[in-house]
Amino acid sequence: MVEWSVSHETRRIVIIGGGFAGASLARALGRRLPQGWEVLLLSDENHFVFTPLLAEVVGASIDPLHVVWAVREMAPVASCRSMPVQAIDLERREVVCVCDSGEEVRERWDHLVIACGMTVKLDLVPGMAEHAWPLKTLGDALALRNHVIQQLEHAEAEPHPERRKQLLSFAIVGGGFTGIELAGAVMDLLVDASRFYKRFSREDIRVSVVEGGPRILAPLPESLSRYADKVLKGMGVQVLTGKTVSEIHAAGITLGDGELVPAATTITAIGNAAQPLLADSPLETERGRLVVTPEMRVKGHENVWALGDCAAVPNAFDGTTSPTLGQFAIRQADQLARNLAAIANGGSAEPFHYHMKGMFAAIGNGRAVGNPFGIRLSGPAAYFMWRAIYLAKMPSISRQLQIAFDWFWDLFFPRDIVEISTLRTGRPVENAANRENSAS
Ligand SMILES: Cc1cc2nc3c(=O)[nH]c(=O)nc-3n(C[C@H](O)[C@H](O)[C@H](O)COP(=O)(O)OP(=O)(O)OC[C@H]3O[C@@H](n4cnc5c(N)ncnc54)[C@H](O)[C@@H]3O)c2cc1C
User: Fold this and answer.
1) pTM for the predicted model, two decimal places
2) Which residues partner with 38 through β-bridges?
3) What range defines the domain where residue 282 resides?
4) Which of 2, 72, 179, 426 could in theory staple to 174 by disulfide, Cβ–Cβ 3.0 to 4.6 A?
């Protein structure tokens, strides 16, 4: 067992998680903490992922590396280590990690911030874990992008027209923001790419969205849901609302009423579950999220804090619980940075308070819907605004320029349908494993 040498004079804030909440907090604390305080960020990946643009990575309209940023570049004042936290020792005020060699590493904290997000719930429906593709990480987006392109290649090589159609069928479970953005992005990619293939046309492509509620994009006003529904149907997407999914299998989805939605590829865009770290901890949770005070203190623990998706943070603005959204995680990080800086300077913490400015969803074919400041917007103007907002939210000027260039490129040139191969020369065992992974 190794203990990192830290002077016990130094007061230490340890953050678990390098996502919207953790990385934004580490960045904001860098500017605020007084002398004698240090920040250590532990995350299982070395980068922050800008999840709102993951659907565009799947749709091959953005370079995958442009939606991520190394956490140590984002928060240069913090010490960052890429290693998953295995356990939280509340009594000894330590977190327990395991480093690459397998040795246990314990990190001391004076204040602990839990910002580990949530994971995708894959046991909601029989067959989901085995057959559905999740979209949460950069790895998920890259694998899915590659898989969609592979399906086009397999369809081109397939001699039987019926099997070809089956290969070209895709279904998305969930008509919320992620599901609808994915449906639009996948359809755009398939339609754009189909002109380079000789054995099938866009008529052979099938993309379906299955939503359990009465309408898609339910948090938006009804007129915007109707507009999105109409645009998607116009693009050829089958939108099924009020339908429950009873099973997912290799050939598609069986609905509650027995109907079969054919799909060689099913993507899930529903359901969050607690990270294993929290599922196994004694800290109190409510629907998988940590119970915290309005100041973001974990209930019953003076020096333990939580924010982002993993915490049910009460919003003092309207008394509701914060939703699992990046825009809330960023604002919570800002408030918590102020709270911790105030405590470091002998002050006290303030409650989280945020008035949401609205939401946008890109629906494909250069269109979006949104309600910024309560104003209903739809169509190409909304799409332009959606892009401008996300561009402004990217955490660095270099990434903003790269994404702007990707979108500008997209206006004049076909999107990139190169399958990113991970096959390496002269490593037969690894290559066979790679082929197996990409086939499963
Ligand atoms: C496809 C998609 C699209 C989205 N679009 C939008 C959108 O348009 N607008 C919006 O506001 N929100 C959007 N969201 C939601 C948004 O991504 C989340 O609300 C946000 O990421 C929450 O931030 P977080 O830091 O709490 O969690 P995350 O961003 O999930 O970060 C958690 C971090 O903790 C790390 N971690 C987990 N367990 C451990 C462990 N044991 N040890 C160390 N590190 C650990 C993870 O690797 C990760 O770095 C979208 C989400 C998805 C999946």
Assistant:
1) 0.93
2) 12
3) 2-120+272-344
4) 179
